[in-house]
């Protein structure tokens, strides 16, 4: 009963954004998550198993890989709002599943490829049959993507890529790797002189002349995250994203606005899963002759958790709506990513505390939500990077950085 009242309150508060169609999309995604995603997560995350191909195929049938892909290319043709709406639901089950939907699409920007090839591969991507891994960060360039060192040198009709990449999730399971490289040898140019390349490969393998190994992680299971070494990896000249004047750094950074809204959605889904599990446990767990949900400290903790989740959700709805209206969102996207990620860590930690010793075991999903929530403060730009973006928009860049540029 408590959970039903909570869901009714959320729907009422969100009525300004939620249409009947969006509620239906949300309900279908919620049902799919509870029936298909959550049981798989509960089984495989404790043993660090990979997302099963069977689940990926079901997601493809639901259209979840093609949410933002236009209908003429086999997608659902929906917006950032629906993308985030579905991502929140999927993350309530398993954040990795909510993340893999971001690995579809993108090849329409490879303008050197024939249009027929780009359309064919985009249609496959919409069904989850042609997915990407993304190699941006490096050992010495985490959030500072303008400092990328991995080089791409044009040699006749081929680009030759040499250098190291770090934090490349799904490098083995993807159908291609999108790699951010420096084409200008002058690193003083910072963000200028960077381009994004497509390195095609066989699924289940690394590309030729690319070596790597999985990085041991404390969470974000369901797929492996790699450290990669590109050793004169050769790709066709046309495997470059954008036209001749496109700068890889600018296009990458502009794409992070939607990615950060997506991260906020994932963080909210994690927090909601932890809240719902904590509420259910608190009503079942009896101490001193009464359910612990009767204790004021537990009730107030749950109230604070629910309020923080809803505040993050409403900010996400605003940012997603603005993104669909094609407005510039670097500050607002940074705000929602920072707020939702920080919130998710607090809420999942509070949920674990409500479960007590049971929460510190793998017998309950709360520890998974807690581990994965911690990552949302790091990937797609750390919380500190988000605060830097926000403060720069509010106050202008600090004097020392103005001189550097």
Written description of the protein model:
This protein is of the alpha+beta class and 405 residues long. The protein folds into three domains: 125 residues, Butyryl-Coa Dehydrogenase, subunit A, domain 1, CATH 1.10.540; 115 residues, Butyryl-CoA Dehydrogenase, subunit A, domain 2; 155 residues, Butyryl-CoA Dehydrogenase, subunit A, domain 3 (Up-down Bundle). It is 50% helix and 14% strand. It contains twelve helices and nine strands.
CATH superfamily of the largest domain: Butyryl-CoA Dehydrogenase, subunit A, domain 3
**Through-space gap between termini:** 58 Å
Approximately how much beta-strand content do the residues carry? 5-15%
CATH fold title of the largest domain: Butyryl-CoA Dehydrogenase, subunit A, domain 3
Second CATH tier, the architecture of the largest domain: Up-down Bundle
Total individual domains:
3
Look at the structure and give the mean pLDDT. 92
Radius of gyration: 22 Å
Q: Secondary-structure element sequence? A: HHHHHHEEEEEEEHEEHHHHH
Secondary structure tally, helices: 12
CATH class of the largest domain: Mainly Alpha
Instruction: Report strand order across the widest sheet.
Output: 2-3-7-6
Number of strands: 9
In percent, how helical is the residue content?
Answer: 40-55%
Biggest beta sheet summary = 4 strands, antiparallel
What general outline do the C-alpha atoms trace? globular
